[in-house]
Amino acid sequence: MKRRTGQDRSITSTWKPATQAIRGGTARSEWGETSEALFLTSGYAYDCAGDAAARFAGEQQGMTYSRLQNPTVEMLEQRIALLEGAEACRTTASGMAAMTAALLCQLQAGDHLVGGRAAFGSCRWLTDTLLPKFGIATTVVDARDPQAFVDAVRPETKVFFFETPANPTMDVVDLQAVCDIARERGITTVVDNAFATPALQRPMEFGADVVAYSATKMMDGQGRVLAGAICGTQDWIDNTLLPFTRNTGPTLSAFNAWVVLKGLETLDLRIRRQSENSVRVGTFLQGRVARVNHPGLASHPQHDLAMRQMDAAGPIFSLEVDGGRAQAHALLDALELVDISNNIGDSRSLMTHPASTTHAGVSEETRAEMGIGEGMLRLNVGLEDADDVIADLDQALRRAGL
Ligand SMILES: *Cc1c(COP(=O)(O)O)cnc(C)c1O
């Protein structure tokens, strides 16, 4: 049988990730199109009223409404699940919709969550502001230290939530150690894997229960659409996540799903080349600035751990200048090739000042505790020739007095 519908996992699950990224989940229509079809439809028609009733009763296979299912979205979900090595995946309208759904679907008043201190600004808002508002207690810890999780656990702890590498300090969490601590205590781990993607790091291989994504970043990879994804066991997705998402509706649009499907086809190539470029740019910056936080460089205190759990370090790292916000802004303003932009995972090189952009909503004390100083800059190294990026940084550094 040449026509692969993608419904049958037994056909596709033996492929390696780079193959899954291109072919996993493909379900061809009667036309046999090579590139995945874009199904822009909010509803579905039934041959008879009995079919509609049977589908709503779950007795007949088929789709009922695009908040719940869509053929293009389903192809993306299967592709990500296959890439991740997860039993199931559901996508969402953005990475934050994924994080919010992954947490709220399983927590209730009286529960407790332990979160990583260094995190994307909005993820910290979830742990610091949203969850406590609904009676869910939270503790943030230095996630580089597995013992910090042990010390924070309470009888009512239900979830560990962290990202690795973390935005923008590039703290690395020991996935095996922290997932083991959670497993022993019946705690669910939710790992935000946006920086690495399944092309470089598959947290479930280390015992993670739920892996959530901003697919806006490396998965789209070309700065076009917002998207999110949540991977877990079939049972967790069906019985814990779906009741929440089906009824609250953080659904991904079919168009955006289609764009991410196209993005995934080049994920492996892009992330490996961008990782190489990023190491070259990071190596250049070492010695020129006060500090470079790059898990792919031997100078990173957790370099060995990062390289044990990741295939490559990814495109993103941070650097610190001694002259505070004024010098960091001067460096940004002197850039000619690299864009001043707070996005990441793009094929373009982008740089931002976290303290005044992505983490401006986090209090100054919290920023200091997270290790985000006024002189920190975050760089996403794109697919341009690394020599051009280095030349641009060189001239900008000189103009900023470095
Ligand atoms: C960007 C990002 C998010 C949020 O994703 P959106 O798609 O922007 O909603 C969450 N976590 C991390 C680590 C991110 O980089």
From TrEMBL:
Coiled coil: none annotated. The modification N6-(pyridoxal phosphate)lysine is found at residue 217. Signal peptide: none annotated. Residues 1-27 are annotated as: Disordered. Residues 8-17 have a biased composition (Polar residues). It comes from the Bacteria. Pathway: Amino-acid biosynthesis; L-methionine biosynthesis via de novo pathway; L-homocysteine from O-succinyl-L-homoserine: step 1/1. Its EC number is 2.5.1.-. The keyword Ubl conjugation does not apply. Keywords: Amino-acid biosynthesis, Methionine biosynthesis, Pyridoxal phosphate, Transferase. The keyword Signal does not apply. It is an enzyme of class 2 (transferase). It catalyses: O-succinyl-L-homoserine + hydrogen sulfide = L-homocysteine + succinate. GO terms for cellular component: cytoplasm. One of its GO terms (molecular function) is carbon-sulfur lyase activity. It holds the Pfam family Cys_Met_Meta_PP. Belongs to the trans-sulfuration enzymes family. MetZ subfamily. Homotetramer. This is O-succinylhomoserine sulfhydrylase. It comes from Sphingomonas rubra.
